[in-house]
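Support reply, case 0932

Customer input (verbatim):
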Amino acid sequence: MRLARNGLFTDPLAFPNLSRRSAIGDAVVGFVVLGVLLLMASGLNGTQQFVSVLVGLALMCRRSAPTLMMLFALFSAAIQVVTYDIAVGPSLLYAVLYYTAGNHPNQWVRRGSLIVAVIGSGFAAWAYQRSPVYGPTDNASTLAGNVLTFFAIAVLLVGSWTVGFVRYQRQRVEEARIAAQISELERRRLLDLYDEQAERSSLARDMHDVVAHSLAVVVAQAEGARFSLDANPDAVKESLGVIADTARQALADVRGVLEELRSTETTAAYTRTDRDQLYARMRAAGMILQTDSVGDEDAASPLNVRVAFAILTESLTNALKYGDLGSPVTVRQDWSEGCRLTVHNALSATPLAPGGAGHGVRGMAERAELAGGTLTSAAADHGWTVDLSIPARPEGIS
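Our regenerated output:
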C-alpha cells in the first residue's frame, strides 16, 4: 500500500484505469454479499461467521485493493484449515476471487494465485475430510475422499482462475487490435497531412512561377518604357504591348491553377470515396456508426469539403481512442447552407489511449478558421461533441 497525494492509501496492485463507479460498485456488491453471508451464518459458530466477514471484505476490495483481497482470502482459508471449521457458502465465493486474480494485469499476481489455487486445493481437501461438514470417515475412505475432494476444489478454484485468465488474454488481443487500427489511422492521417502540404507547396510553386515571372517581365518592360518615353515612342508602344500580353497570359495561368481547386471531380468525389473507406475502417475497428447527410455536397465549395473530411477523420479517430465503443457514434452532415458537421460519441471510463496533448483539437480549430468557419469540441450530452460550422460562400469565392 502507498500514500496517494490526496491522503488516501492506494494499492499498487489495483486494476489500472479502474473508475470510481466500478470501485464503488464492487464495494456495494461485496457489502450486500457480506450481509447475506452473515444472515446465512447466524446459526453457525463464531469461526464460520468470522470467515464470512473476511470473504465479504475480500469481495468488496477485489479490484481496488487486490493486496487486501488476497490477504483476507488467505487468512480466511488458513483459519478453516487449522480449525477444520469449513464455511461452505463463503468458500464457494473463492471462485470470484480467483477469477479476479486470473484477470489481473500483473503476471506475478496471476502466476502466484495459480500456484496458491493448486496447493490450496490440497490443503482444503485435507481439512474438508476432517471437518464436521463431511462427517467421520475411516482411513480407507479418507484417501479416496481426499483425492475426489481435491479435484472438486481444484475445478472450482483453478477453473475460475482459468476463466479470468482467458478474459485477460482476450482483452489484450482486443487492445492490440484496436491499437493497430489507431496506428493505421494515425499513419493515414499523417500521409493525408503530407499530401496536403505537398499540394500547398505545389500550388505555391505554381503561383510563384506564374506571378513572379510575369511581374518580373512587366516591371522590366515598364522601366524600359519609362526611360524610352521621350527618345523612342515606338519602343514604348512595343513595351506596353508586351506588358499587356504578359498580363493576359498570367491571368490565364492563375485561372488555370484556380480551376484545379474548383474541380469537383478531383476534390469532392475523391473525398466522398475516402469518407466511405474511413467509415469502413472505423466499423472494422468495432465502432458503431450512425451517419446522416442532407443537402447537395457536390454544390459545396471544394475547400469546405476538404476541411469537413479532415475534421471528420480527426473526430472519429479521437472517438476510437477515448470513446466507448459499446455506444454508437453519430455523424451528421448538412450541406444546405455552407457546411455543418456534428460528431458525437460517448466517453469511456477506461479509454484505449488515456490522456492526450490536444494537438488534434487545435488542428481542427485551425482548419475551420482557415475556411472561415468555427469549431467547438467539448463535453456534451454525457459524451463528447465536435461541431463544425462553415457559412456558405458568396458566388465566385472558392
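We compared this against your earlier run and they match. Two observations from our side: The longest helix spans residues 139-228. The two ends are 63 Å apart (CA to CA). Please reopen the case if you see a mismatch on your end.
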